[in-house]
Amino acid sequence: MNNPHPSAPNVTTADLAEQLRFLALSSAYFDAGEWAEAKRLATAVRTLVHTTKASTSLLRHLDLDNRLRWVTSGWYEPGNLVSTDGLTMMSPGDPQEGDQAYRLFAKTAEEILPMRHAWVDFETWWKQIVIRDQVGREYSRRQIVLFLANKYGGAHYDRPGAADQALLDGSAFGWFYQDEPLFLGENRVLLSMRTIASEVEVVFADEQNALLVPDLPR
What we know:
The protein has 9 helices and 9 strands. By secondary structure, the protein is α+β, with helices and mostly antiparallel strands. The strands form 4 sheets. It has a 3-stranded antiparallel sheet. The protein has a two-stranded antiparallel ribbon with strand order 1-5. Strands 3-4 form a two-stranded antiparallel sheet. Helix 1 (13-31) packs across helix 8 (188-205) and helix 2 crosses helix 8. Residues 175-186 have low confidence and may be disordered.
């Protein structure tokens, strides 16, 4: 039987290093205020991990996706009846800086390591529910990455569906501050993408994973 995802002899760890460099550069620009870089982050992560019947991910070519251990820094706990935003952090804003009452932040690699996290296999990481809104819509890392890459300008544009739009505008999370609706995090999907990029950074900084790619330039 033919392998539906044959190894590509021209794909090397140098290509992997290049994609990780793209992630690092876009992360730096994002952190400097260029939030649209989340779309490039999504495109790079899609290139690294997303395999379909028509295309093979870079990590699948290198036989790494299912051999690496993946870090998950946030997830939805089944049975939780309130909105869950597993890939971002909330903290009070600074009124003197013109901030609103609360702000959302992405998680950096440096913040993920000492936090509560777990090592999981690739399929769990990719398809794990990380966001759940007030009406029960659930989103995985896969959905976030493919929405930004395939519909929101990473590589293509397409009309967002109702679930995509709810994720973008943050209107379905049911949070209130001083009896007023708290519509913070209109860019929660972009912040979540930044956290996903941080998780990938942690994966390739992990000493155990490094044994699988000893020739990866670092």
